[in-house]
Please model this.
Amino acid sequence: MLAHRLCSIKPSPTLSLNQKANEMKSFGIDVINLTLGESDFDTPSYASAGATEFIRKGLTRYTAVDGILPLKQKICEKFKNDNQLTYQPSEIMVSTGGKQVIFNAMMATLNPDDEVIIPAPYWVSYVDIVQIFGGRCVIIPTSSDTDYKLTPEQLENAINHKTKWLILNSPSNPTGAVYTDEELLALSKVLMTYNHVHILSDDIYEYLIYDQEKFYNIVTVEPLLQKRTLIVNGVSKSHAMTGWRIGYGAGESSLIKAMTMLQSQSTSNPCSVAQGAALAALSNEHTLLPIWKDDYQKRRNFVVFEISKMHNFSCILPKGAFYVYVDCASMMNQLSLKTDVELCNLLLETYHVAVVPGSAFGCDQTFRISYATSQDQLQKAIDRLHSLDRSVCSND
Ligand code: PLP
Model:
């Protein structure tokens, strides 16, 4: 009954671990859930007011498939003001979350065996989406030595005549790594010599960046790549609006047109009322952002500092997003565990801390902590990791 290609598609591991953690909670177990990739802050009231305004005005019917014009114009303004990039509304489409933009793009462009270069660790859905449309993922492993970032040499070696896309995600989920302008410029030099390669720049964590670090994407450092790049962004992470499901893409108008055509035959327009909320979110001065960022940065510093004191866990300092990516090779070795999944199961079942194994992101012997949770919960989780670390050390 089901198509063959679905055999290799997996449900999102973050969602299934979250479910297991919630089941344990329902049995009264005090589980600290650090699996989820969403803000613990509330949607700003001005965004919610934008939605109620749409309801009050009866703006509750179908809209243009690719989003209402005022929202697309606002997105163009955002690109102009924040990234110094010029886009016309015909180069913008609004979808049901950033995920649908990526889904539309792969659906619109991939032919069987087209290759998509994905640096690992990667956001879990890239691989499955590419596979759904018969593309071949070329996974390029990175390590903590390069702060989990792709190097120009790796990129050069991975490109061939079948390469259709390179996916770049900065700040990164799961590592929190942020590419500098120099690093992107070096990658762009390689890309400039291969005209057939398109770039998907996933900027969804653009605003969650710390330590006075500046945000760049491949187009801001090399404007000649604008026509070949699809920028993916949205309000999910920047405005704590994951449930509203509004994401957008900016790219060459023929690509946007093809993606819009496909969306017209699947979900049609994104929810009209959620578009009202997104319009209000992007129209207001985001006064909460510095407060959120300050809070996230404190939590990140806390988690990284505590992990640096442990003997069998280590991590790099993530410059963005709300994740700490932990190397657990030493702990696995001490416990004679073969996979990070076994370690994460142990953490959940014995220490009641839920984290996502790095193998889900294409990088073994690691796990991801989401610090988008209260300081109180983080403190408890860290205490439990310390207690595992101490128990292992005392057995030495
Ligand atoms: N890209 C990355 C790297 C993500 O982490 C996520 C969500 O977790 C998305 C895209 C999709 O975001 P949305 O909720 O807008 O679909």
Notes: Residues 70 and 273 are 13 Å apart (CA to CA). The domain at 2-42+288-389 is CATH 3.90.1150.10 (Aspartate Aminotransferase, domain 1). The radius of gyration is 21 Å. The pocket of pyridoxal-5'-phosphate is lined by residues 37, 97-99, 123, 169, 173, 202, 204, 234, 236, 242, 247 (CB under 6 Å).
